[in-house]
Amino acid sequence: MHDTIVWSTPLRTRFRGLDTRDGMLIRGDAGWGELSPFWDYDDAESATWLRAAREAADTGWPAPVRDTVPVNVTVPAVEPEQARAIVLASGGCRTAKIKVAQRLPGGDVEPLSTEQARVEAVRSAFDELLADDDGPGSPSEPPADRTGEPASATARRPGARIRIDANGGWSLDEALRRLPVLDRAAGGDGRSGSTHGLEYVEQPCASVEDLAAVRRAQHVPVAADESIRRAEDPLRVVRLEAADVVVLKVAPLGGVRACLDLAEQVGLPVVVSSALESSVGLAAGVALAAALPDLPHACGLATAQLLVHDVVAAPLLPVDGAIPVRRPSPDPAALARATAPRDVADRWRARYHRLAQVLDTADAVGSAAG
Q1: CB atoms within 10 A of CB 288
Q2: Catalytic member of 99, 118, 178, 327
């Protein structure tokens, strides 16, 4: 039996429809793991999160091939001024992932103008961050554009990247209408292969078929997230040529080793992202990113910035745009600040026992079949 601790914390900004985040820490011979599937996931889907937590607690992870992991700052669906402030306080991140396609109370997708203003605010923040390197007379002084005005630092320098994440919230028509506008808002010039504009759009539509259609119809690269981690057949994305990049999340996919195996099968560039875990859970994502043979893109692992409280003394936060590869353990003082209410703790303990039964049954069936 594992030792367990339930934690809970408010979020700094409403994210994914949540104002608080909670989960369970699990200790085994190899250290601490985390179990924190969202409450709208059923037991069958949540059991893979327990598999990942058991791997962390009982087995540990493969050896890293790098010491740090470059990360993006995550910008929720907030007003432009807050989006700008988040980037400026990001710990040196030079890549931003901006949430778009948010649902309004009536069920409609937020207006394109709202998304555009958010992207432009992030681009403005990057321009400010890069301005010190581009002052008058410096080797990288901004070249003039066709109007004679200095070009945007974000548009000019490949070191600043902007990506957007729709979480499958657009229809195909909405994606094709909105992407050119948002690409220009990010500094794009409408050309395929440009280093300006959007680095990629993550999960613009829900279905793999629509992802493939988006990819064929316009030039912004497409990343698949939900079509990988919530699909019965994640390789369908490859067969339909629906993505340029795949997003892997350790807990929903069953562990670091499972993700490494899937990355090898997919054969596309990988971005490792979090599932809004504490730093104990984030460490698994960092371990995956550190073990991948190639890591061409910044990873979405800087989400400890979204938590008011963490469960460790030194959270996994970016320094100069990267997170060091390390494995923090729970800290008593930090846990005291992140204590879960009794009813939340009771729900997690009941859920843990249900998921253990689901996972053990599945493993027994698999062993018998094998």
Answers
A1: 29
A2: 99
Tell me: the pLDDT tens digits for 243-291?
999 999 999 999 999 999 999 999 999 999 999 999 999 999 999 999 9
Instruction: Identify the pLDDT of residue 74.
Output: 96
pLDDT in tens, 102-133: 999 998 999 999 999 999 999 999 999 988 55
Known binding residues for Mg(2+) are: 165, 202, 225
Does the annotation mark 97 as catalytic?
no
Written as one letter, the residue type at 229 is R
Active-site residue (options: 27, 156, 215, 249): 249
pLDDT confidence bin for 41, thresholds 50/70/90:
very high
Question: What are the DSSP calls for 103-135, one per residue?
Answer: BPTTSPBPPHHHHHHHHHHHHHHHHHHHHGGG-
Domain with CATH 3.30.390.10 in the chain: 3-61+337-369
| Percent of the chain topping pLDDT 70 | 91
Residue 49 token pair: 């999160």
Q: For domain 68-323, give the fold.
A: TIM Barrel (3.20.20)
Tracing tokens 């901004």 back to the chain, one arrives at: 142
Q: What is the location of CATH 3.20.20.120 in the chain?
A: 68-323
**The two three-digit tokens of residue 42, written as one number:** 């059923």
The answer to whether the predicted template modeling score (pTM) of the entire model surpasses 0.70 is yes
- Least confidently predicted of 114-123, 149-158, 208-217, 297-306: 149-158
Span 3-61+337-369: which CATH code? 3.30.390.10
Provide the annotated binding site: 165, 202, 225
Tokens 């607690």 sit on residue: 57
In single-letter form, the type of residue at position 175 comes to A
Strands ordered across the beta sheet of 198-202: 73-75, 95-99, 161-165, 198-202, 222-224, 245-248, 270-272
Q: Which residues, at least 6 apart from 239, have a Cβ–Cβ distance to it below 8 Å?
A: none
The mean pLDDT value for 169-180 works out to 98
Q: Is 99 one of the annotated active-site residues of the chain?
A: yes
- β-pairing verdict for 3-15 and 18-28: antiparallel
